[in-house]
Model the fold of this input.
Amino acid sequence: MEALSKVEVDSVKRVNEVDTLPVDKGENLTLTCRSDLASLTLEFGAVVYNDTKNENGTYTVTYTKEAEKGDNNQTVLCKATNSTGFKFEASATVLLKVSVPIQTVFILKIVLLAVSINASFSGIEEFEEGNETVTCIINSTLYPPSHVLIRYFSINSGDPVINDILKNTSLYKTSEEYDSKSDTYTTTVRTAHIPVTSRHNDQAFHCSGVVNTFQFSKAETFIVLYGPKNGSLSFWSSTGGMEEGQTATLRCSLSYSNPASKLIWQNDTAQFSPPTPAVITKPSGTNYQTYQEWTFPYRREQSGSNITCIAIGHKNITVSKTLQIGDIKYPPDLVISGKTLVDEGDTLNLTCEVVAANPSVTGFWKGKGSRHLVITNIKKDQNQQEYTCSATNSAGTSNRNIRLSVQYGPDFEIDSSVFGTEGNNLTISPVVSGNPIPSNFTWRKLGSNTVLSTSKNLMLGQLSKGDEGVYVLEATSARIRENNTTEEVTRNVSVFARIGCKKMNIIELTTYAPKKVRLYPNITLTHLDAGTPVPVVNCSGDCSPRCDFQWTRHYRNTTTPISSNSILDLGNATGRMPGIYVCEGSILLDGKKQAASASFELRVNYAPEVYSIEINGFSKGGFKESDTITVTAVIRSFPLLSNVSFGTSNDKTRRSTMILGWYLTERFRVMYFSTIIFHICIKSLIWNAIY
Done:
């Protein structure tokens, strides 16, 4: 039976979750403890009462006194212990009720005296995260408050940890001040420390209690100051691709902080500010959200860049996230190296280069299929010709065009002979072309230094037989060179003017074959280095009617037609030009060819060229020991070779080169060809010839 024992206080009334004993001031206050245990005692006002009475197994202890002001909020404690030593307790609080006396002041005036209660919170306007206390201040008249309880309220969900701490009123610290003049009590109740976090922001505390028999309550919202949290910052990108020029958007968003946080952007180590300002919203209470976007076109130099978004909030609390920009693709950047301004006869050498591209790619010349564009012996008709350097990768195609500027001339178009009659005028009008356009002209008669005219056309007036002869036109153009300098290039053309006699209004023209053909300039031998310009040679003859001209080249018993024009323009000298150049002027008289000629020799210095190497008697089976190997090399050069080295390279000699002796035998003309024969006797090894 003892296991079911209990202890209780009689006549209690439940008020604000506390057992109370209401009583009016001045009335009898009867306190009674009841239990089934004989060890029952009653404690009140620090006095223990044990005058126990037993009625049919129910034990009671009673204490009676007149209720007075000091009894308010005093605790009655009932205790008992069973035979096993288990202790039982029950308690109740005396609650002194306020009487409402009516007093007459003067005549017919009634004053009602009542309790005034004012509860408020202190220091909860702004909490910091961490351990905080909650203070409730109660101002009351006549009586102090009792059974004060502070609770936490949340619109979302409660907090069991905080609620458990606040329910334990024994942890409260209470202080009380009494003003006797106003009969006012100021009671301060401070809770134990409670853990405050950002999730408690904009929630409320509730302070309630009893003053005499009057209940009071006060609720107030509190604010928590906190910075950005790990996990509250998001950073992501939105883009359709990773190619240069495409638009990308980065969005940095902080979900909550109080106060609002500041966003800082950083590209690797350099800070920057997107043109679009940050947006701050307040979705609830004092919880702030902050976000900012950066929209930009991809640039190649951004590949691999680390973009960081930093959120800085309360007390400089900082969180950050970093995105790395990937590999940005971009079409090729092209550069053309080489000169596009060349002289006629030069070699054009241009390279189509890709200086930057992702993915990497090689450029090429359209129509050529190679990155190199090499054209030897450029012709004047290639002036202003356009070529396209191109390259394509997954990001696109790039083209770069160049237009050639071929410098040539002055060139002439004119008959080799013109005709006039005594007493009349004669105008010689050549067509002169060139790039740049020739600007200076000089006419002279062959054999005289007198300048006859400085215009393109020559006018001879009142012709006489003495005016007959060869007239030479020199034209000059200024070619552009490096560093914006110019070089004057002068060329000439000659024309034979034949003057006929005029008798009785009949022009007598005599038909005759050329007695002599002249070259201008008058040269017999010119010796040049390879790559230098060969002088332009004009051929003229005194034929009637005008001569037909033919240039031929004579070299090693071989005759090659060169030109059927009176002008010989070979361009730049090469190793294949040496020879005797002959200009023949001719006419047909009575069905027979009548001709005269003039010639000059052209010599060109050029580096040795190996035409062929032969190993006499070589077969796949190789040579036997003591066999003699004869190596014949045909080498072309001018002037004559002064030194030739032969060598061997073989695995058995670890690829070392053996410089051996040599001797020379002449084939054809020594100035042009050298044939080298080398003999070696195999004595100890069998070598396979490699050449």
